[in-house]
Amino acid sequence: MDELDTAILAELQRDGRQTNRELAERIGIAPSTCLERVRSLRANGVIEGFHAEVNLAAIGRPVQALINVRLHPKIREAVEGFREYIAALPETLAVFVVSGGDDFIVQVAVRDTGHLRDFVLDHVSRHRNIADVRTSLVYDHIRKTSMEVLPPEGPSKHPRTGRRSR
């Protein structure tokens, strides 16, 4: 990755729906160069996809929670089995396999607290390898939609002019 790739990534994170021509114009490069760079970033696994950000309340799932799960026994089959099971449920937004006291943190979105209770009792707690479950209701959720791309090491230069940045 070089500074041009970094500029492309920053711009795509700002607006992933812009056309290749618009992207190239904003960065100050030829559309053919831009397209080749984006294709390369995708082929190298830097860009994994383009997604629509959905308002959870608008689709009837305004309540979010984080569910901390501890398994017993802590063996590969139990961890992999639970990870696949919980990820497949429609309420699940994200699954984190973590270290420390818990084995998983599961982020869910549900219609109300009754649905959350039922989800925990009917789907999480009933799983055969569950040792402990703790649920935290999310009051506010601030999700970053972009991540600053670290520039390559060395002096920073503008991708088009080649001049050092201030």
Structural commentary:
Helix content is 34%, strand content 19%. The chain has helices at residues 3-14, 20-27, 31-43, 76-87, 113-124, and strands at residues 63-71, 92-97, 104-110, 130-138. The chain is an alpha+beta fold and 166 residues long. The protein is elongated, with a radius of gyration of 21 Å. The mean pLDDT is 91. The two termini are 21 Å apart. The relative contact order is 0.18. A 4-stranded antiparallel sheet has the order 2-3-1-4. The protein has 5 helices and 4 strands; from the N terminus they run αααβαββαβ.
Structural class: alpha+beta
Question: Could you tell me the radius of gyration in angstroms?
Answer: 21 Å
How would you sum up the major sheet?
Answer: 4 strands, antiparallel
* Overall form: elongated
Give the N-to-C terminal Cα separation.
21 Å
Strand arrangement across the biggest beta sheet: 2-3-1-4
| Strand composition percent | 15-25%
Number of helices: 5
Low-confidence stretches: none
Give the helix level as a range of percent: 25-40%
Total strand segments: 4
The overall pLDDT average reads 91
H/E topology pattern = HHHEHEEHE
